[in-house]
Amino acid sequence: MGREITLGLIAIGLSVFGAFMISRFGYRLRLIDKPNIRSSHSHETPKGGGIGIAAAFLVTAVVLDMPIVFWLPIGVMAALSLCGDRVEISPKLRLPVQLFLMGILVFGAGVGIAHNFTRILIALFWILFIVGTANFFNFMDGINGIAGISGMVGFGLLAFATYRSQHEIGLLAICMALACVGFLPFNLPRARVFMGDVGSIALGGVFAGLVYLVSRSVLDFLCMAAFLFPFYADELTTMIVRLRAGENLTKAHRSHIYQLLANERKIPHWKISVSYGFFQLLIGLNVILCKTWGVGAVITVLAFWFVVFFVGSGYVRNARKK
Prior knowledge:
Blueprint: H1 2-25, E1 32-33, E2 45-46, H2 51-63, H3 68-86, H4 91-111, H5 117-139, H6 146-162, H7 167-183, H8 196-214, H9 218-225, H10 229-244, H11 257-263, H12 269-290, H13 295-321
Helix pairs in contact: 1-2, 1-7, 2-3, 2-7, 2-8, 3-4, 3-8, 4-5, 5-8, 6-7, 6-8, 6-12, 8-9, 10-13, 12-13
């Protein structure tokens, strides 16, 4: 228990230290978020405060003796994202590098060198899932507290589901949840610092990477991935709307439901972020309870909640047009 407490304190401490240092010296380091017409904020704010979260991941992963092919690619991806917080990096460069790094993770930490077409397809799925989740988390980090709360809840659920059966992974998930807790006071209710790409990309990459490591079946995957359900639902429904409108998906926008609620409805950021967290917790607990009934039950539950979200999002979007 002593090691667990120590690692938890280290995770919180590194997160707090990183957020504090960027909040103080972000301007000198040129880590500044400047508002534009796509932003949900109106003031210049230091960004990159999630560097402490990325550091917490690397330190705890090394101490827990996680495979280097797991933590090093994610660490490099986070470092690239920190550079992106300072200087704009084109998606044409960023995305191939992310795919390459997560290919190292998937082939190194799990499937090995694929021997047949089926294994290659499975490996490609996991690579796309991890890269997609990392970027989804980044896209959803647009208002105060939403990334920190969702990270806290998602990793908390992951820890609850794995701590007994896969102790080291569960402990790493606890440390990530605590790192999110350490960051939140700097970002909620008023943002003294933003998480930045370094934090959100790291959180998404670690979450999806852990799902990859613990999933032994389709049922495992569905349950673990569902712990981040609101982010996937908001991002996927928004992508559908934007594709139908002929928009470029690589361009910045304010079309997510959380953005419409914050910008058009003028709902305080903290209320939206907390609501997403409660919704996420509710679905996560639903899935945990239904897991013993099998894949069909879990798919039914997720389909029901996706329809609920889709209908609700349609109401928000239609109200915006009136």
